[in-house]
Each structure stands twice: as C-alpha cells, then as structure tokens.
C-alpha cells in the first residue's frame, strides 16, 4: 500500500522542528502559512490546494489529523470527491462551539463525513456516540502522547537537542518551576490580564520559579508587560522549539496553560496542570483553574496518564484464536456480571468494549441508575470515560434482575465474620440467581476471592437447583455447563490497565471448563492466561495476598522497634534495601482493602494448626492500627483544645475505597474520643461516613487544615498531602504514619516527641 503524506504548514516553524527531529520529509508541502490571514481566506486556500492534491493523486482513502482546519477542510474536499475519510484524534469535544474556537466546530464537521474514527480515549468515543456516530469508532490511544514520549527519549539520548535551557534550569535549581503557556483567542483581554495577575501572585513565593515562553501576539505580550512585573524568579523568554519545550515540561513542577495540547502532554509526564479559564477538548483529566487561583490549588490530585501505547482495534484476540475452543462472536456474546462494585463494574465495561452485550446486575437501585446514565459511582482512573462510552454504544446496561446469557461472571464481596470465618453467602446468592436462567452451553465464572472449595460449592448448588442440567465433575466431558474460577489480580488506580495486561490464573472444575473460560478471557486479556484446577486457582489468590500481608507485617513490626529505639525506620529500610537480596516493604498505620486485610484469614480458618505465621502477621498489622491510635491520642491529649486534622480515610493512596481501611479506623477512634476537635481531610470523599459525622467530625480541605489545625495525623499518602511544602507545616505537630514528610522538623519538646516513624 502506497502512502502519500501531505502537510499544509500553517504553523511552519513548529512543523519543521517536528519533521526534523523525526527525520521525516512530507511528499507534498503546501506551505500555506501566511501571517494574519483570516479564517475565511485560510479555509478557501486549504480547500483549493487540498482538492488539487486529491485530484492529482486520486487516493483510495484520506486520513486527516492534526490542525483542525486542515482536518475539517481535508475531510470536506475528500467528501466532494466521494473518497472515504478516516479521522485520527476523533471525538475530542469541549461541549462549547466557541471554546476552543474554531477547533470545536471544525472537529464536529469531520465526524459525519468520516467512516473511520480513531478516538484517543473512551471519553472521546462517548462524545461521538452522543452525536449518533457509533460505527467505525475505534479507541486507539493517543498518538500525541506516543510522539511526546518518543521525543523525550530522543532528548535523553541527545541532550544537545535541548541544551539551550540548561543555564536557566540551573539558575532555578532547588525551586519548584511553574511552566506557563497562554495564547488562546478566547482569553484575550480580561482573561489574559487575570492570568498575568495570578502568575504574579505565584511568583511572590520565594520557593517558586516561573518559566514563561511568551507568545509574540500583542494580546499576550503587551498584557503581560502591564500586569506581570519583572522579578528574578520569573523568566520571560521567547517561544521554545519543540525539543526545548519538552525539556521545560519535563523539568517543571506544574504547568499553567490554556493550551489543549499542553493539557494532554503534561499529565503524560506526570505533571499536574492548572487550566486557564476556558474549556478544552484535550483528552485528559486535570486540575481546573477556573479563577486563576494561586499556587495552592495544585494540591488537587492528578490521575496518572496510562502508558503511551497505541491500542488498535485489532489488539483483542478474535474468537477462536490462539487455539481456543469455539464460542459465539463478540457482537453476539451475551455476558452477565453479577456485582457492579470496584471489580465488577470495570470488568463489565472492559468486556463491553470488545463488542459483547453486557448486563451488569446489582442489588442497589442507585448503582443501576447511575450506570445506566453512563456515570460511575466509584473512583477509578479512566473508568468514567469507558463506562460512558460503552453505555452510549449500547454495549453495557445495568439491571436489578438477571437475564439469560452465554457467560456469567460473579464479582461480589466475600467478607469474613467476627470470628474471621469466611462469609460466602453473597457468592451463593449470586449462584442461586444464575440458576434461574442457566441453560446448556453456558459458562459460570467466579472471580470473587474465595476460600478453597468455593467453586465446587457453586457447582453443587447449581446441580441441586437445576437437576435438569449435567454439571462438571459429575457428568465428565458430557457436562451441559462449564464452571471455573478466575480471581481478579488488580491494583486500585490501575484496574483498567491491569484487567487487560496482567496474567490470569483460570481454574476449571474440569479441564474442559478451564478451556472454555480461557476462550472467554482471551477476548480481552493480553497477559498470559494459565489454566489449572479450581482449587489450585483459589489457593493461588489467597497465597498471593497472604504473602504480601506477611511482608507488610515485617515492615510494620520493624517500625515499632525503630520507634522504641529512636531510629528513623524509613532511613533503615532505604539503606537495607540497597542489599541486592533485600526488599522490605513500607510500613503504615495497618493494612486495609478488600483483599490483603481479609484473604489471609481464609487460609487461617481453613487450617489453623498450620498457619501460625499468617495468623501472627494479621495480628501484627491489625495491632499496628491500635498502636497508631494510642500514639495519636497521647499527642492530642498533650495539647488540650488544639484542633486535629486526620489526613486521609482510604486504605491506599489516591483512591476512594475505604473498605477495611486502618486510616478510617484511626479516624473513628479519635473522633469518638475527641469529638469535634477532629477534622478529616479526604480529597476522594464528598461526605464523611456516618460514624464520623455522629461524633462531630467535619470534612475539610487541606488548605483549611493547614490554616486551622496545629496537630496533623498523616494516615494516607495521597499525592495531595505529599505536595504540602515544608514552610506550610514546619510548625505543626505531626504524626506521620506514612513517611511522606521526611523533612519535618524534630519536635520542640519531649511531650511532642511522638512523630511516629511508621
């Protein structure tokens, strides 16, 4: 296949830089850059020039990407000639036709013309679906981000590509660098002046440096001359070429911008973004900057950007590939996922993305209503966009009642009782629900973490409820249904990535059951899928979490010993881990979550005589929470009347999951004892759990806590807490259970010497 590349060169300088660094030469260069040309003239010149190129080449397909005027006019010229159009970066929308202007309308015009839409994210695909564009939509990943990482690697290999910034960056060493870019038409006037005043407020902080490549447009440069005074920590420089800009972005602490492109690129390098007033269509989440607020607004958490991998529409293996046994095609496959919680909803959405028709069943009406509206009730990176997209396309819906399907996936909770005995009633309830619609040829898969033997109990229950069906393990290879166990193995905050990329262990009641479940998982899992029997798979999941719990217990016990001896446990661990065969985990206020704090008890309950180590680890980790409560209470009692801020309730950083959270347990104990003196900072909560509200605790933000609370109990290592600078907490009495503030000054008196080391 011959490919002809054509560039319009509206942005001549930037285009030449990118082509040079990539070593590319376009086949056709229209060189249409003209200073000050109107949109009318530009559109007319583009339409004429691109039409002539298409008449000369007579392509079979036109692919448009990049500058939106070029993409729009290129699509229109192809449409006039009845040439099929593919749109790269399709579906980017802000929802306002005047912001960004004219990009928003340009993109909308391309959508009904194109028959192939390569959307960078599920959110973009959902935007297309809202415009009734559902055919030919493929979520491919973000090519801009792939190019960014490629360029960054080139700069690392060849530092001379961006060497001009070295003296300036050396001058700003030790300061937090704010990279500023602003140039959009919709901010001209009062908006630009407001941005300039905000930059001046930021620059008033001695620990901050501002790097500001100023656009030469007088609507930017003249305004900044008027409102942004000169200062030694403000570098107003000429616009940067692409390699130098990437170097600046890589070196900065945060980016302040009104550019949609920068709003894509900065989070991809792990940089938070403050967005200048107007909306952007850039395909990423970021901190908002609605009123040009001061630097402190950067404490809001910024979700991580996924790895820069282009995922084509053909990544998922086709039915029957890789030696799998036959199953219905993706578009015909019906899947029911029972339980739409932290695992069930992402699993349902990922399966729906393959084209299968997925029904999510949940017992909570509000969950069903939320999902059917294309929204989510849990916090997980990129899940909102994915759910919105698959619901809009009709691939996913939710219900309180079950329907017949080809595959049933059980993803319900498996808690334990007060005596630590596993409680699998939700699993058995789900199996009972499935039994009502089960038919020959169906597959039932249990994903919930369960005691060894649970899958067999599901088999026995189905056999009891449906004597008309032959079940595996009793009917041999002649069984009518397949039953298997495949535990989830994902990390909150990375669920959508790990559901696809992680290896899966699939245990069947029989080998045939395992093969049939394998066929299903190969539709959406890129990691290796290893088959075994159900009991081995069940114990594998319990073993993984018990192993981690034991290792965390060592770190927590070590922190207690170090605290008694007056040694910094974080330094000890850092030094010990320099040994090539030592890898000590990080201590904390205990262990939480739906897996590690629960699953080891399943092994202990099953065989108490042979699990003393696992039991002791559980007791150590739970006991660490009690120790933190005692230390915090002693610190608070030593300062009668002083307000207290507990930082965090989640069981781990940057999520909204409070299940079995030691932080929540500490906060509850302190609020019960000290009442309204206790405030809670939890950026992932809209309101406090009832048990905290009942004792007078209040939910506040981190800025309020810094202003009002002399005592701070760090319970979760959210990024928003890590970013608090030393000067804002130097005079606080801190109990840091996560080691996020190693530079916190030593206590001023013996009664304050309770800065717990872990």
Automatic annotation (TrEMBL):
<dbReference type="Pfam" id="PF03720">
    <property type="entry name" value="UDPG_MGDP_dh_C"/>
</dbReference>
<dbReference type="Pfam" id="PF00984">
    <property type="entry name" value="UDPG_MGDP_dh"/>
</dbReference>
<dbReference type="InterPro" id="IPR014027">
    <property type="entry name" value="UDP-Glc/GDP-Man_DH_C"/>
</dbReference>
<dbReference type="InterPro" id="IPR036220">
    <property type="entry name" value="UDP-Glc/GDP-Man_DH_C_sf"/>
</dbReference>
<dbReference type="InterPro" id="IPR008927">
    <property type="entry name" value="6-PGluconate_DH-like_C_sf"/>
</dbReference>
<dbReference type="Pfam" id="PF03721">
    <property type="entry name" value="UDPG_MGDP_dh_N"/>
</dbReference>
<dbReference type="GO" id="GO:0000271">
    <property type="term" value="P:polysaccharide biosynthetic process"/>
</dbReference>
<dbReference type="InterPro" id="IPR014026">
    <property type="entry name" value="UDP-Glc/GDP-Man_DH_dimer"/>
</dbReference>
<dbReference type="InterPro" id="IPR036291">
    <property type="entry name" value="NAD(P)-bd_dom_sf"/>
</dbReference>
<dbReference type="GO" id="GO:0016616">
    <property type="term" value="F:oxidoreductase activity, acting on the CH-OH group of donors, NAD or NADP as acceptor"/>
</dbReference>
<dbReference type="InterPro" id="IPR028359">
    <property type="entry name" value="UDP_ManNAc/GlcNAc_DH"/>
</dbReference>
<dbReference type="GO" id="GO:0016628">
    <property type="term" value="F:oxidoreductase activity, acting on the CH-CH group of donors, NAD or NADP as acceptor"/>
</dbReference>
<keyword id="KW-0560">Oxidoreductase</keyword>
<dbReference type="Pfam" id="PF02350">
    <property type="entry name" value="Epimerase_2"/>
</dbReference>
<dbReference type="InterPro" id="IPR029767">
    <property type="entry name" value="WecB-like"/>
</dbReference>
<feature type="region of interest" description="Disordered">
    <location>
        <begin position="276"/>
        <end position="309"/>
    </location>
</feature>
<dbReference type="GO" id="GO:0051287">
    <property type="term" value="F:NAD binding"/>
</dbReference>
<keyword id="KW-0520">NAD</keyword>
<protein>
    <recommendedName>
        <fullName>UDP-glucose 6-dehydrogenase</fullName>
    </recommendedName>
</protein>
<dbReference type="InterPro" id="IPR017476">
    <property type="entry name" value="UDP-Glc/GDP-Man"/>
</dbReference>
<dbReference type="InterPro" id="IPR001732">
    <property type="entry name" value="UDP-Glc/GDP-Man_DH_N"/>
</dbReference>
<dbReference type="InterPro" id="IPR003331">
    <property type="entry name" value="UDP_GlcNAc_Epimerase_2_dom"/>
</dbReference>
<feature type="domain" description="UDP-glucose/GDP-mannose dehydrogenase C-terminal">
    <location>
        <begin position="645"/>
        <end position="743"/>
    </location>
</feature>
